[in-house]
Amino acid sequence: MNVFNNNDIDRNRWDSLVEQSVSPKITSFSWYLDVVCPQWKAIVGDDFSWGFVLPEKRKFGFRYLIQPFIIQQLGLIYLNKDFNISSTVDMCLEYVKSHYPFFDFNINVASLSTDRVESRLNNNLLLNLQQSYEAIREGYSANVRRNLKKSAESGIIVKRVDNFDEIIRMFVDDKGDKVGWNSRKSQVLVDVLNVVKAHRDIEVRGAFSGDELVCGAVFIGFGGRWTFIFSGNSDKGRETSSMFSIIDSFIHDSVNQALTLDFEGSNDQGLYRFYKSFGAYDEKYLRVTSKIKKISFGS
């Protein structure tokens, strides 16, 4: 295997690997990683037949691995369906253990038969879009149906919108203080959505009460997978159950045109139930952590 520092990675070969890989994810492209984790590195197999992202950060000369903002999971990228995933992941984690005293990040495997690192399972929910809208709607829970009716009776109209700035502002006003949001995160989010717009598909949908935007969501697409990457809501949006209508509208327009809607979560039980209520199925992935659970860089 080969380990490449950020400046040494052949981005054309890396992006070709992502493009052709089994179960590719848009968040593994070099141009996405460059925005959210500018110091990322990679372990790469011979002839770029596989790769493993190392989400490195550095502070005061200390190198560590941490899950980047606005990426759910990284891990192994490979070309061959018969590839030996387990032994390769073990090899990569051996490298991680020997080079990074502190690490805490998510990888795209659901099991790990090793005591090399500490790990725990996380939830991700996916919806199969390769069926009719009617069939998908049959799988909606009674709660989804009630909320869609409530949204319709409230006069909510879902439309495609041209930009995501207002949705980000809505999120910051609604939840920013609760989740420790800051201007740097807003800028990274704007930058990554702009780079996605330049390279792949992006769709922004808003729920309107008259002319007022009350709720919005951003979806990014690649390789048959649409990812529900970000959303913003308001008091009126919640009162009118507008997010239910946005997701239902997106599903309606995407069936048999894409493979999967990736909800990207969640371990939060409320969000988990919400996504699952649309008929989504659970796909586990792993969080791997070092023995050291906290690092401090002083004041």
Key terms for this structure?
2 domains; Aminopeptidase; 7-stranded mixed β-sheet; globular; alpha+beta; about 300 residues; 5-stranded mixed β-sheet
Describe this structure in words.
By secondary structure, the chain is an alpha+beta fold. It folds into 2 domains: 2-121 and 285-289, Aminopeptidase (3-Layer(aba) Sandwich), CATH 3.40.630; 125-282, Gcn5-related N-acetyltransferase (GNAT) (Aminopeptidase, 3-Layer(aba) Sandwich), CATH 3.40.630.30. The chain has 10 helices and 16 strands. It has helices at residues 11-20, 30-36, 85-99, 133-138, 142-153, 165-175, 183-199, 235-239, 242-254, 269-276, and strands at residues 2-4, 41-44, 50-54, 56-59, 62-66, 76-78, 103-107, 118-122, 125-128, 157-160, 201-209, 212-222, 225-233, 260-262, 281-282, 285-289. The protein has a 7-stranded mixed β-sheet with strand order 10-11-12-13-14-9-15. Strand 2 (41-44) and strand 3 form a beta hairpin. Helix 2 packs antiparallel against helix 7 (183-199) and helix 5 (142-153) packs across helix 9 (242-254). The chain is globular and about 60 Å long. 35% of the residues are buried. The mean pLDDT is 92.
